[in-house]
């Protein structure tokens, strides 16, 4: 239990998502399609593509122009790039795809656009080999969770920390309404309420240790032990 608590605090303190949007300095160095995506300039993007720009080109952090559009929440740009052949499953240098970028931003519309354009809800992403669903549950992003569940995201995927989406909603959540609703959605969809962490502590035990009574009730109604 102490290991899980310490790890949770460490990840929260260091920015557990590890997702990096382009910095102003990087954007200033962009040229061509990346510059157009960063500026939200659809006309320039079309012109670059018509001239044969490499839609799969990467910046110094492995981001495609589509990643850049995702970080900006620019659905028009993302749609244009997707229609012109951008890969929604491409991973940046930190192993994030468009679906996970959008889930972390709490951008359900972008999540749905990516999923409807060939993005996969089950992609293994992030340095911790998680999924977009785990990232969304960690942050209590309810609408992305709904979209990912509807798309068949794996409910019980275990990342390298030994945590599922359900566990992350507890150990990296605040016990409030958003994280409780995230947990409820996961349980209702069929996530295993008894799958323990790597220390053998169950979700109910983790919620009880934190005094998260709303989460405890959800788990107990689901038959958690």
Summarize the structure.
The protein is mainly α and 225 residues long. Helices cover 55% and strands 0% of the residues.
How would you summarize the topology of this molecule?
Blueprint: H1 2-14, H2 24-29, H3 32-39, H4 42-50, H5 65-72, H6 75-83, H7 98-104, H8 108-116, H9 132-139, H10 142-150, H11 165-171, H12 177-189, H13 203-210, H14 213-221
Helix pairs in contact: 3-4, 3-5, 5-6, 5-7, 6-8, 7-8, 7-9, 8-10, 9-10, 9-11, 9-12, 10-12, 11-12, 11-13, 12-14, 13-14
List keywords for this structure.
225 residues, mainly alpha, Serine Threonine Protein Phosphatase 5, Tetratricopeptide repeat, 2 domains, elongated
- Indicate the mean pLDDT: 94
CATH fold-level topology of the largest domain:
Serine Threonine Protein Phosphatase 5, Tetratricopeptide repeat
Give the name of the CATH architecture of the largest domain: Alpha Horseshoe
Morphology call: elongated
The separation of the N and C termini measures 16 Å
Number of helices: 14
CATH class of the largest domain: Mainly Alpha
């Amino acid at each position: 239990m102490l290991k899980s608590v310490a790890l949770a605090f460490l990840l929260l303190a260091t920015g557990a998502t590890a997702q990096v949007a382009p910095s102003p300095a990087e954007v200033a160095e962009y040229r061509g399609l990346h510059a157009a995506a960063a500026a939200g300039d659809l006309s320039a993007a079309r012109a670059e593509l018509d001239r044969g720009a490499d839609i799969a080109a990467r910046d110094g952090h492995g981001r495609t122009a589509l990643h850049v559009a995702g970080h900006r929440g620019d659905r028009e740009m993302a749609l244009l790039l997707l229609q012109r052949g951008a890969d929604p499953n491409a991973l940046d240098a930190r192993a994030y795809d468009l679906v996970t970028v959008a889930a972390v931003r709490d951008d359900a519309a972008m999540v749905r656009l990516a999923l409807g354009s060939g993005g996969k809800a089950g992609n293994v992403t992030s340095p911790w080999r998680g999924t977009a669903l785990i990232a969304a549950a960690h942050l209590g992003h309810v609408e992305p969770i709904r979209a990912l569940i509807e798309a068949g995201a794996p409910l019980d995927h275990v990342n390298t920390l030994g945590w599922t989406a359900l566990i992350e909603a507890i150990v990296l959540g605040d016990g409030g309404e958003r994280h409780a609703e995230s947990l409820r959605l996961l349980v209702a969809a069929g996530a295993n309420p008894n799958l323990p962490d790597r220390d053998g502590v169950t979700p109910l035990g983790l919620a009880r240790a934190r005094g998260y009574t709303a989460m405890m009730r959800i788990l107990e109604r689901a038959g958690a032990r």
